[in-house]
Amino acid sequence: MTRQAQVVLITDADSPSGKAFIQAFSAAGAKLALNSPSKGAAIGQELDAARSFGIGLFIGSADLTDSVQANMLLEEAEQELGPLDVLIHNDDAYMPALIETCEEQTFLAVMDANAKTAFVCTQQAGRRMAERESGCILYLTSIHAEKPTGSSFAYSSSKGAVKMLSKEAALYWGRSGIRVNTIEMGPVEGASSRFPSTMTTLYDNYEYKVPSGKAGRCEDAAKLALFLCSEEAGYVNGADIRLDGGFLLHYMDHKMKRPRPGDRQ
Predict the structure, then answer these.
(1) Which Gene3D superfamilies does the UniProt entry name for this protein (predicted)?
(2) How far is CA 250 from the centre of its chain?
């Protein structure tokens, strides 16, 4: 990040990706506003490391489906740290949901957690950024914004909704100097247990379907986010960057890059 002391809001800071964002942006000197469901209890190690860089920190625990709470979170964060420069929407709730049997409550819960929070945060943060004609909004989404999971149509639907939200926001607020982009994350370690399916073999041996034979990491998303939120990416707006190591390019199982005898695991 080339501009000093950017103020960055990270939602769902307790998640593995949230922790990676904290580590990357604090090391880059950003001031961090964190929405932490645990009120910081689940990220003690990351907070200690962030404080060692001497950065400003604000920790909140708002229900981001509620625009009043989201506005209060931003109000308090800006009073503590200064005007918001970057919003990283990182909420990523999953529930098994097949079209035939899914309860309406389950569908709405996933849509609220992933898509409604994105809308509320975008609206509240975007209004503030537009007044200053400067800002960056970044969504960590999923390859399942386009590719079915075979286990939760509600999850895929929510990510598809965020994808189109980002396009509308990039078009509208691009005229106010705000850039809006998404990172569509592919599988990371443990993905096969997260998306169990009887309809697709997509995640069977998923790590070997990546051409390099390596599963992705949350740190990969954090490194990309640092670039997308920097001045160097000033002309990147309305983009979806698929971060899956080439996973979705795979189509022949016998060509998977499996470990050879003697390879270190």
Answers:
(1) NAD(P)-binding Rossmann-like Domain
(2) 24
- Confirm if 243 and 183 have CB atoms less than 8 A apart: yes
In the beta sheet, which residues pair with residue 185? Answer: 142, 243
How do residues 175-232 score in pLDDT, each as one tens digit?
999 999 999 999 988 766 788 888 888 888 888 889 988 889 999 999 999 999 999 9
Q: Where are the domains of the chain?
A: 7-255
From the list 157, 98, 89, the residue with the least C-alpha distance to 123 is: 89
pTM: 0.93
The predicted-structure confidence for 73-87, as pLDDT tens digits, reads as follows 999 999 999 999 999
- The rounded distance, in Å, linking the Cα atoms of 96 and 98 is 7
